[in-house]
Specification:
10-stranded mixed beta sheet, 35 strands, globular
Amino acid sequence: MSPKDDVTWQGKQHYVLERLSLCWHRADISEAFFPGMIPITYAGPNDIPKGVASKVRLTNCFQTYNKEARAEFIGPDSPEAREQLGSVIFNGKIRPPMLDSALPCKWLQHCLAEHKCGLPKESPSSTEALGSEHKSVAYSVNKLHEKPGDEVSKLRFIDVTQHNIVEFRESDLLYQSFAALSYVWGRAQRLILRENNIAELKQPQSLVGKLAKTIVDAIQLTRLLNVQYLWVDSLCIIQDNHTDQSIQIDNMSKIYARALVTIIAASGEHANVGLAGISYPRTKHQVEVPLPETESDNPSSLLTTLNPTPSGFASWLIGCPWASRGWTFQEDELSRRKIIFAEQQVFWSCNKVQWAEETAMDTSLTMSTIAAFPLTADLREDPNRLWNPYFKFLVAQYSGRCLTNAGDAMDAFSAILQQHKSLTGSDFLWGMPTAYFESSLCWGRFEYTTLKRRPGLTTHPVASSKRRVPFPSWSWLGWEGRVAFEASFPFQWDDIPEEEANSTKEARIVSKSEIECYTLRQSPLRLKRVSMSGLSMTATSTLSVSLENILMELPAMTVEQLRDTPDEHYLYFWTDQAFLTTELYQILDQDGRNGVHAEWYPMPERYGKNILNEEGRKIGHCLATEQQPITSMNGASTFILIASQVSTNRYEKQVIAMELEFRGNVSSRVNIAYINESDWNSAVRERKLICLN
């Protein structure tokens, strides 16, 4: 809990309230686990064999419950608001099987009146809701003259009152009030928009009886919110028209950012499941556990929670199909207000607060947030943190998600890249920020995951031809698996004095780029520097690349071949190259097992590679990927210099090198390695012009 924007608390500026968690020793180690119980294998009595769980944990399993406390929502302007001072904030509530339709309306009304959750500015007014006995909210959008560029050449919605598709041309999203739906398609999509049915679906009532259950429920909720239009990708994008798909995908960052609210169907595996609590009841029951009587005037009990978690920082949406899909990630991140339908309850999340249906958190007295849903609004508002850690966090989370079509990897992240560009002014090349391009090449695999090359093909938006090409190996988009940016690319070498960096915790991963990357562009044939920041202009004379350099240093490449090369697909740069020996080793935990078996995250088998000098002494290391078979990871490998790290008192200064494999004059990235700088400088090196695909 934290104070409202216009309130200052004495003392602490926030308070943390935790639900009860349980951790106990097992009476019988052969006993089977019950659902929700999490085994803990790294602690326990000495007589428990290694690798056998000795304890069991259940987190967020009970909350306080006071029957006498006020449980219903109190609006910000209600005369009863003062009485909330005697209420129990964070008190448990009994969640009904079917959703109280007044609750999401009141949540939205509260946000519109109390919070500043982005533009456009809405002003709520009370009117009679359609088909409802309670007061709902009508929204009038103030026409704002903000930054240009929000115009969308063509925009379609579902009219939830007429049950048809409506189309606006040259529509400005600032002037539109609409909801959006985020859900998992699956294979149960009953109707999608096509060239041959768009005219029919524009007719009133043409959607009745034809839609999947999740979309039907979202239409019903949109009407309850008294919003006329709903945006659904399957019915607002012509699915067999590539031109329209491209236009609408480019507009997606504006659509979700400008939606009044986004309805998230988090629990359904496909579009025909529906929204829990609207078309079908929630089935889990909460149990009240009375506590011993005390002299308190407010006798309390414990109430079981609906979503126990495996750890204190695990999301309540862990395991939901929606939370594992690639396309839904940007829909979630860009939305400023969300009504989230999980299997057992509904959540509210906006840029200021996050509330749960089972807990009395929705009060006007304080800002309350569920830790399971980390807010990102503060990061967006702080330019210094947009890159580090916010962009790193986004890439790490998105890259661990699944895509049905591997070639969608760029499109499913493009809206976030567009948002970042609007906030920072920085361009991107294949998902890599051009402002810190050379440093961003130092991305690696996330510690507990494996990587393999992405098989899909895509069309790069800046390409002069519409030819479908593979993702480049140097971009994190070219790999499947969770990735991590090792280099702190928001900080330039010149910005951090070395003596200051030596004493900072983050200094070890602040990198100084040692290369200058160029890409090939057609019409006319030319080379283009990717980033104009980073290295000083005095150093560029020895690092710059020309077409003459390519034809001379890479003789297998002819002018004809260069003219047939896709735009901005290969990188060209000068660097030092060395041949070093690698040796595979297994990464074992303290019990001698391959992999780390933390209770909140299933871990695969993990391997690393030691890098050896000519005498067989270890001089560096890297985490192995799945790109090479395990049996072929020993032997000589080619490494090239990418960046050097700021030295610290704790770590020896290292260089960041890239392991390559070659096909003729063209190389592909295999891995990122860390090598002791002194050993790299003493190795046999050769200056080379690299063509990296």
